[in-house]
Write a structure and sequence with these properties.
The complex is a heterodimer of chains A (481) and B (631). Chain A has 481 residues and is mainly alpha-helical. Chain A is 75% helix and 2% strand. A two-stranded antiparallel sheet of chain A has the order 1-2. The longest helix of chain A has 32 residues. The mean pLDDT of chain A is 89. Chain B has 631 residues and is mainly α. In chain B, a hairpin with a 2-residue loop joins strand 1 and strand 2. In chain B, helix 5 runs antiparallel to helix 6, helix 10 runs antiparallel to helix 15 and helix 17 packs across helix 22. Classes of the chains: A mainly alpha (481), B mainly alpha (631). The interface between A and B is medium-sized, with 34 and 25 residues.
């Protein structure tokens, strides 16, 4: 155990983030819209520095505040990704925010608070800090969902998200209380030692409720119903944030919950996970076909992707965490790349671009945008040699190694179905009649993000071999052993 | 090294003109493709010269192709006397045809494609004749088939050209199937596809297997060389540009069957059954095609039937074991038949693409050079003394007489009679085209002109071949003393002395082809120069025979009735019922419409009411609890 001062040192990144967020909030409320550029820049820089901090200083395993807080390779890795993607989300929204009303400065601050919540979430080591962290990341998200205040869709989606989120928090809390009641402890690492001597049924019951609360956050079936409405209603930069960062945090905490306290219950929870991922892939792939709205389609697509990511959990083998992490990173990069294109298109056109058909003829006027989107779609669909192929490949390999051939076959078929709607983007952009004749250029920041993502997706094998990414992922995987 | 260059220079030319032709421009593309082929033909001539001075053989290994289990096939080039003759025929005719095409195709916008195909064909043909194993030979075999398909259908806007291309491909496939089976039989029997190994081990194979293998290989040869029953594609193939007809459908590709049998002589020599079958098929084809040629009116079709007939002659020579004689006729035939085709191309070019000889006449004044060239070709084909056909064709007839094989008498009499027919239809073509009063319209005649130099020079060069190739090389091919030059490129059974025996045939046998040729000439003169009403009188008096010949013995109709239509009906049934209804209906179409309807219905669950969503969550949780926790 470490003393208070050391605990503060360990938690310093989160503290810095909290202090920055609060100070920026002060600046914002005094200078209102004038301060938007400053706030954007500062919050971006803070997140960037913090993410590199995680890259450089990461510990094997260390507890703070008497075990409320854990810092290990997995949480460091997760925070690195979370901080970095939040920082990118802030840049991506900058142009859009400049044309927004006077409350625009709240946007980066809300992102900072939510990111703080997520950072605490991936480092939570007991049920109470877990709950608090989840609430801390959720509340700003509810606000972000309604951020487009003048739009009734946005308000509606925020309210729905809030109500359903409250319900899921209730489930989570109930599950936590059951587990505490049956084991007598709230520390995740202690629960696993006590489970064997406690009432098994009670604990599994609690686990199911707990899982329901977390699965809600990654919007997997059957707790997915909010996602399409919220994705569609929220402003595009918000959707982009929703689709990437919170998923990472929720997946990490899902991994931690399943493998740390409930290591002995693999046979029960792997069934639940198989059901959840199975139905997510199926529903996400099939229902997306009927969607016409781009963001709604992305919502279903993300449901399917979360299904694929959790599929590797169902093996109950800790080494398969690696394929989940690879999957998540590739999914997030492709998502950010796609949204950087979409936000760019929406910023530069007066007409609303909401439906896939609005992208018709994009290849004629804006070949670079069209090619980028096509690449991300092919990656989502899992076409080799793009990154998305390897994401799916690693998951399938995990499944096959564990003998889950049936699941792998099924997931393969579903991904073929899913390929249809991804490739429809390509068809609309390249082969449909031109609807939009305006030439769109990339704004500098979005163009940069897009090109980074483009290179990552296109040359994933190469990226994997020259960057320490693979090393980091395998270290993070080993953290739970 | 020369061998390597000979084979691969045309391929380089094909790639350059095919892919970069547009960039290089017309003149440069012409220059590149022609000069590469020309270089190839000069090397071939050099190698042929070396061969004339002494037997040469070499095996040039390129790289491994298939090396799996018992099959060991490599790409390697085999060179011997047989190959050397084929090389010189293929590359020289190909070079002349390339040059000729510059003029003939000058108005065609897709010349790059044409030259690329032509060069590719040459490459494939060279691959075929230099192969040292059956598989590589089959590669070349299919390569020339592909090139032939592409070139027959070169003018793909014409439906008739497309149909002809497809017909050539399909009919050839029948033969190729036999060929492939033959390769398989030989592989099973000897455990190898390499010629050297096969020829060593073939003596240990039982007679029945050899018979089967030979008949199957000959089936492939029948397809490629348009022998009776598989000949129907050749006349239709005349839909392609005339240079193609000259190169592929007269001089080279159609002789691939002859080459195959000659190359496999160590196998065929062991099968009397197959040899007799070859004699009878060849003789029947020679006679059949000659009769059909009598009444055709399309200038190219007449020559096409003549080709078919001459190929029959060559097969008879192969069948009686006179392989050198067959190759000799192949050699001379390449020159005079290419000359005839290119000459007829010149006529067609002059007559604004008119091909019907009934609409020509009196052209010798307008295109005298072409007339002289066609005369030389005709004289060579009909076997006028001292010209090339005289040596080779007479040698075939004599060898048919001298043979002891079953069916040799049948072949001898048919071939002699066919010589008469050949003479008749050839002179008929000349008289109708160049002599008498013109039947062409003034409009066409006013535009008629002698062809450009790029077309006349190849004609001139080929005419030298037609005039002198027989006289110069008859010793090389026919002399019993010089058979050492052939080394073991052609195997002759110890009991087979046909090359010697033909020199001892009776006087009347030696002279009868000449007599037949003169009779044919006289009859044609009477019919088409003196008593011009006689042909139409005969055709109206004997409509049955006329129609029978005019409709090519009703082969196409028969095949349509027996094979094409029933197969079409079966195909239609399978397509409409089996493929569309069953496979598509339950397969792709059915599944996709199922997925879409599921997608639409599940989308409806997403009502937008928050209490529905909450309900779904709780139902889901309840399901998880009941299914996975309680049970």
């Amino acid at each position: 155990m470490v003393d208070l001062f050391e605990s503060l040192i360990i938690i310093a990144p989160e503290l810095i983030l909290a202090i920055t967020a609060m100070s920026l909030l002060m600046i914002g409320s005094f200078y209102q819209k004038k301060s938007i550029n400053l706030i954007n820049t500062l919050s971006f820089l803070t997140l960037l520095i913090l993410s590199f901090n995680e890259l450089i200083f990461n510990n094997i395993q260390i507890f703070a505040f008497n075990g409320f807080f854990i810092e290990d390779k997995l949480s460091s890795f997760a925070k690195f990704i979370i901080f970095l993607t939040s920082a990118l989300s802030i840049i991506m929204s900058a142009n859009w925010l400049r044309n927004y009303d006077k409350t625009a400065f709240e946007f980066p601050i809300l992102i900072l608070f939510s990111t703080l919540g997520m950072a605490l979430m991936v480092s939570a080591n007991d049920l109470v800090s877990l709950y608090l962290a989840i609430e801390l990341q959720s509340l700003p998200l509810y606000v972000l969902a309604t951020f487009n205040r003048n739009d009734s869709f946005s308000s509606e989606s925020g309210v729905k998200y809030f109500i359903l989120g409250a319900l899921s928090s209730g489930l989570l809390l109930y599950g936590s209380s059951l587990i505490y009641g049956f084991t007598g402890t709230i520390f995740l690492n202690e629960i696993s030692q006590l489970t064997l001597s406690s009432n098994q049924l009670g604990i599994t019951f609690g686990l199911a409720f707990l899982l329901a609360g977390i699965v809600f956050k990654i919007s997997a079936v059957p707790f997915h119903m909010w996602a399409p409405d919220v994705y569609q209603g929220a402003a595009t930069p918000v959707t982009s944030f929703f689709a990437s960062v919170p998923k990472m945090a929720a997946i990490i905490i899902l991994i931690r919950i399943l493998y740390v306290p409930f290591d002995n219950f693999i046979s029960s929870w792997s069934q639940i996970i198989i059901f959840v991922s199975f139905s997510s892939i199926l529903l996400g792939s099939v229902v997306a076909i009927w969607q016409k709205n781009i963001k709604r389609l992305i919502a279903y697509s993300s449901i399917a992707h979360m299904g694929f990511a959790t599929l590797a959990l169902s093996t109950g083998n800790k080494s398969d965490i690696e394929s989940i992490l690879v999957y998540m990173i590739i999914y997030i990069v492709a998502n950010i790349g796609f949204f950087s294109c979409l936000i760019n298109i929406q910023n530069k056109t007066e007409k609303n671009i909401n439906n896939i058909s609005d992208l018709a003829g994009l290849s004629v006027n804006n070949p670079s945008l069209a090619i980028s989107i096509a690449l991300y779609m092919f990656s989502f669909a899992g076409i080799p040699p793009l990154a998305g192929f390897f994401a799916k490949y690693y998951v399938f390999i995990s499944l096959i190694n564990e003998g889950l051939i049936f699941l792998a076959t099924f997931a393969l078929i579903a991904s073929v179905i899913g390929a249809f709607y991804y490739i429809r983007f390509v068809k609309v952009m390249f082969f449909d009649e031109v609807a939009n004749t305006k030439k769109i250029t990339f704004s500098r920041s979005l163009g940069l993000i897009n090109s980074i993502c483009f290179i990552f997706i296109l040359g994933f094998i190469f990226v994997q071999s020259v960057t320490p990414l693979a090393n980091m992922i395998s270290n993070a995987t080993l953290a739970l052993n | 090294m020369e061998l390597f260059l000979i084979v691969f220079l045309p391929l380089i030319g094909s790639i350059i003109t095919g892919f970069f032709g547009k960039i290089l421009g017309l003149r440069l593309s012409h220059f590149i493709s022609c000069s590469l082929i020309l270089a190839s033909s000069i090397f071939s001539a050099y190698l042929f010269y070396m061969t004339l001075n002494g037997y040469q053989t070499s095996n040039q290994f390129l790289f491994d192709w298939i090396n799996s289990g018992a099959i060991d096939a490599s790409w390697s080039l085999k060179f011997d006397t047989l190959t050397s003759v084929m090389l010189v025929v293929v590359t020289s005719v190909s070079a002349l045809v390339h040059i000729y095409s510059i003029g003939y195709m000058s108005h065609d916008p897709y010349q790059y494609r044409f030259f690329s195909y032509l060069s590719f064909f040459t490459f494939a043909m060279l691959m075929l004749v230099t192969s040292d194993n059956l598989l590589q030979l089959f590669f070349g075999w299919e390569g020339v088939g592909l090139a032939s398909y592409l070139l027959i259908g070169f003018w793909y806007e014409k439906p008739s050209a497309n149909a002809a291309a497809m017909k050539a491909f399909v009919v050839n496939r029948v033969g190729d199937f036999g060929f492939l089976l033959g390769i398989a039989v030989i592989y099973i029997a000897t455990g190898s596809i390499s010629f050297d190994v096969i020829f060593q081990k073939i003596n240990n194979v039982n007679q029945f297997t050899i018979n089967i293998a030979c008949l199957l290989l000959f089936m492939g040869a029948m397809g490629k060389s348009a022998q009776l029953f598989l000949h129907t594609w050749l006349p239709d193939a005349m839909e392609g540009p005339t240079p193609v007809s000259a190169l592929i459908h007269a001089a080279t590709m159609v002789t691939a069957g002859i080459f195959l049998v000659a190359r496999c002589s160590p196998i065929f020599e062991n099968s009397d059954l197959a040899l007799s079958f070859i004699i009878i098929t060849g003789a029947s084809t020679a006679f059949f095609a000659a009769t059909v040629g009598l009444v055709q009116n399309d200038i190219k079709r007449i020559i096409a039937y003549s080709t078919c007939s001459q190929l029959g002659y060559m097969f008879v020579a192969l069948g009686v074991g006179a392989y050198q004689v067959a190759i000799f006729h192949l050699f001379t035939h390449a020159f005079f038949k290419a000359l005839l085709f290119l000459g007829s191309g010149s006529v067609i070019h002059a007559m604004s693409d008119e091909q019907d000889i009934q609409k020509m006449g009196g052209l010798y004044k307008i295109i005298p050079f072409t007339w002289i060239m066609m005369l030389i070709g005709t004289l060579a084909l009909t076997g006028a003394p001292l010209l090339s056909g005289y040596y080779s064709k007479d040698a075939i007839i004599e060898s048919a007489f001298a043979s002891h094989a079953f069916g040799h008498e049948y072949a001898f009499y048919l071939l002699v009679f066919s010589a008469l027919l050949t003479s008749f239809y050839s002179w008929r073509l000349i008289f109708l085209t160049f002599h008498g009063k013109t039947r062409a319209s003034q409009d066409v005649l006013s535009k008629a002109h002698e062809s450009p130099l790029s077309m006349t020079i190849p004609l001139l060069l080929l005419s030298f071949g037609a005039l002198f190739s027989g006289y110069l090389f008859s010793d090389f091919f026919l002399s019993y003393e010089l058979k050492e030059l052939w080394g073991n490129s052609i195997y002759i059974h110890p009991d087979n002395h046909i090359l010697e025996e033909i020199h001892h045939s009776p006087f009347w046998v030696k002279k009868i082809p000449l007599v037949m040729m003169i009779i044919g000439f006289i009859v044609a003169t009477v019919f088409y120069l003196l008593l011009k009403s006689l042909p139409s009188f005969l055709s109206s008096k004997l409509p049955f025979i006329y129609n029978f010949l005019y409709n090519k013995w009703y082969f196409d109709e028969l095949y349509n009735f027996i094979f094409v239509n029933p197969l079409k009906r079966i195909g239609n049934f399978l397509w409409l019922f089996f493929d569309k209804k069953i496979i598509d209906g339950f397969g792709p179409d059915g599944i996709s419409s199922l997925v879409i309807s599921i997608s639409r219905n599940v989308s409806k669950i997403q009502t937008g009411y928050v209490y529905h969503y909450a309900f779904a969550m709780l139902i889901g949780l309840g399901f998880l609890l009941i299914r996975f926790v309680v049970y």
